[in-house]
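Researcher: Quick sanity check before group meeting.
Model: Go ahead. Protein one:
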Amino acid sequence: MPNITLDGVQKNYGGGAPNAVVGLDLEIGDGEFMCLLGPSGCGKTTTLRMISGLEHPTGGTIRIGDRVVDAVADAIYVPPEKRDLGLVFQSYALWPHLTIENNVDFGLRLRKVPKAEREQRTADVMDKLGISKYRKRYPSELSGGQQQRVALARMLAVNPDVLLLDEPLSNLDARLRLEMRAELKRIHEEFNTTIVFVTHDQWEAMTLATTIAVMSDGELQQVGTPDEIYAQPANRFVAEFVGNPPINIIELARDDNGGLALWSMQYITAKFGEMHSLGSVGIRPEAVQVVPSVDGVPDGAFKARAVITGILPTGGSWIIELDVAGRKVFSVTSLSPKFSVGDESYLWVDAADLNLFDVDGARMRTDRAFVGSGEEI
């Protein structure tokens, strides 16, 4: 399978509107499952459509393997049908008057694949996706999840070099979405197809992707593995967009009369030295530990007195709402809390779990040697 390379790609729809995609540099590797993640209007679907050839970039170059398929400066444009790509839309776009078998082999018929080979490839892909028993049915006789499998089978039957998926699971209920996530994961492993998947659902991206590209306002914010995106966000946008419950943000620029911001700054200065451009601190709720007394706090950890103001069960875990000097902080635990609302407690956070951002929101490095041991707050 080929690599996909986007070099300085831009898209503007005219009319004085800002660029939908701004100077995008992105490399999608052979056999990679890449998720383009971001809020509505961030440019992820536009990027996917430019890769497919359905949209023309207004600047930059797109390569699939060694072949340039779009180069604005050189007036190069390869139409969608000659890019060897498979595209699955949010709408399944199945032919209602054709049986499931005929929907799946539709692309092979267009390519004039010999009948014996066409029948074999159709049977193979339908069997792998578990829809062989529906071959004589029509789309209206299938559930949403089954129709999704048919749409995927139609694309996989033609054996595309790259599979492009534009929010294909958004029309499914929660159970079917979970089943189809597992199905897509299996398809990627079995077919070793390069997949580019557009979604605004962070959990889809985290559970499916080998690599995630986070976008905002047409600009690429960060590219990395799911673990890197979650644990080492490149900036505050990524930190706040990825994670549920959202990351706790402590604004250090605000004067809170000796409260959480001041305590955080004192601790960070003791640990890392002076950081003059520091603007905020982000702490994932899972990193916030809650104990009944200061005796349960490890040496060197950031700690603060807190009052428990809420305990919210979510099924397999609990969200604990804390009041720290008038500021809300959230903790998540998989163990049943031994607290009650109104109890006084201590929260603590390991220094390695502090995400530091400068005044412009960019991540700051904290790999210098620790100093001090952190004083009780």
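Researcher: Fine. The other one?
Model: Protein two, sequence then structure:
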Amino acid sequence: MVGRAWDWMRRQRVLVDCFFASPLLLMTLPGMFGTYPLVAPWQVALLTAGLLGPMALRRTLPRGSFAAVALVSFVQCVAGVEIIPANVAVLMGLYTVAAESSFRWGLAALAAAETGAVLAPLRYTPSLSDFRPSFLAMTAVVLGVWILGLHMRTRRAYLRSLEERAERLERERDIELQIAMAAERARIARELHDVVAHNVSVIVVQADGAWYAMDTDPGRARRALEAISATGRQALTEMRRLLGVLREGGDGTAPPQGAASEPQEGAYAPQPGVNQLPDLVEKVRASGLPVELDIEGTPPAMSQGQELTVFRIVQEALTNTLKHGGPQATARVRISYGPDTLEIRVTDDGRGAAAADDGRGHGLAGMRERVAVYGGEVRAGPRPGGGFEVAARIPLREEVRT
């Protein structure tokens, strides 16, 4: 609410400037009815219009409004018309020029205001003894207003630099995240490609077996054809997901320059799955992190792409614990198999939530990319009692995808 009001005030400059000049108008208004014995009402009205009128454009045209107010005050001093409350507009104009314009224009406005601080005591004080204190007081006020305007100008420049830096850092962070997501999509596409290639190889082998067993063993040929049908459907499903990943990544070209790529060594090795989770846990334990692995339920039939996604989520979560958990951290991996969904929960009691972020990690974004391929969701964040938690939910059937 406050931010909206502030934005509205920024847009309505003329209205806001009139509002800030209104107290001077109220103070000068009685003089228009003859309450000032030394100034005629028409003079008060004329001076008020000449001094407060330019204040409506105080921030829109700071130098022009100050020049108009200074000129009216100079003519008033030369004509010998007594000072009225509306003459404070000179100080308002001085502040605005110092705060809104360059330092040189601020110095010029200071010189003009200081000239008025000299002429006014000379014109309106009866003796030299009265001139000195009036001159010193007016000079102190003029310098104070000018310094305040310079301070506000410096502060606004500093705030603008901070805003520009924040916007630049936000743009750089978005670019880095896009690069990381593109690299992760390319990695997922390569892995799903391996899965599809494996399924096609199985289809070819089963088709050859069915061909040779068609005359001698019809039952075996029938089983081979059933395997071909199931594997073909699975390959089509994985192919759809592969094309979806490439479509989301753009035109399917290589990832942007600077994006991380998978090492080529071992590119044709079998992809890991849920059966390799105990081996992964043992490797993490050997690295010095105590890990417990709990598996609930019976593992259903899963595609290789789904098994690979489960393995990568657990791997990334344990890697984050190793990097950020601290020397005394422990972790627990819990896999729950349901009839329709698979839930993964990796928790630790380390200091990952309070660890310093170097801004180079994109593991959580990669997890979300992988799980999104299968219509799942990932939640990651600090635990209430301390530590960090990664929770993922993956639908196991197409009809329950979110």
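Researcher: One line on it for the slide.
Model: The longest helix spans residues 128-213.
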